[in-house]
Amino acid sequence: MTQPLDVVALIGSLRRDSLTKRLVFGLIEVAPRSMHIEIVPLAELSMYNEDLEDQPPPSWIDLRARIQCAAAVLIATPEYNRSVPAVLKNALDVGSRPYGKNVWAGKPAAVVSASPGAMGAFGANHHLRQALTYLDMPTMQQPEAYIGGVDKMVDENGHFIKDSARQFCTTVMDEFERWILRFVNRPAP
């Protein structure tokens, strides 16, 4: 039996009752059984400051090590001011430093953005993709996952309320599995 694909999930919202976090729970629920998805908490991640690289904070060391051993990264983000939340950008910065030691490089990624509004955090999704390109993360292009009206699609436990949302998110996760397998040396299940 092969080991499950080790996928790290980053959530760009720190709010206790985050809609984005609810959506990630739903994504985990519909993900192929070949994937093991672990949410890596970002709330305690120290802000990046190059002056600290001589003795990096433990939170930096932990994040870098966890990303380094993961097969892929699922990133879920809300939209703040047409961009990504600071906590998510900070995680990308911490993992890309020091220069020459970018733990993100080569990690296949999927971006899912969510909003109670109709546009599904379109701006944040594309802003994030721009950063991931620079970080050398091959990012799944299709299907695009802008989840508008997320507050009406998942309940407080992350279970899908709407079957159409469940079906779409199942497709996203199935395609993400195929995307990951393009970059890791492993047969499809």
Task: Summarize the structure in short.
This protein is α/β, with parallel strands linked by helices.
Description:
The protein has 189 residues and is an alpha/beta fold. The chain has a single domain (5-181), classed as 3-Layer(aba) Sandwich (Rossmann fold). It is 35% helix and 15% strand. The chain is built from five helices and five strands; from the N terminus they run E-H-E-H-E-H-E-H-E-H. It has helices at residues 19-30, 58-69, 86-96, 122-134, 163-181, and strands at 5-11, 35-39, 72-77, 109-115, 145-148. A five-stranded parallel beta sheet has the order 2-1-3-4-5, sandwiched between helices. Helix 1 (19-30) links the parallel strand 1 and strand 2. Helix 1 (19-30) packs across helix 5 (163-181). The longest helix is centred in the C-terminal third of the chain and has 19 residues, at 163-181. The chain is globular, with a radius of gyration of 16 Å. The mean pLDDT is 93.
Features:
five-stranded parallel beta sheet; alpha/beta; 5 strands; 189 residues; Rossmann fold
Question: Distance between termini?
Answer: 10 Å
Q: Could you spell the SSE succession in H and E letters?
A: EHEHEHEHEH
Number of helices: 5
Please state the structural category: alpha/beta
Number of strands: 5
Largest sheet: 5 strands, parallel
Any guess at the CATH architecture? 3-Layer(aba) Sandwich
> Could you estimate the helical fraction of the residues in percent?
25-40%
Q: If strands are numbered along the chain, what order do they take across the biggest sheet?
A: 2-1-3-4-5
Rough outline: globular
What number of structural domains do the residues give?
1
Radius of gyration: 16 Å
Q: Average pLDDT value?
A: 93
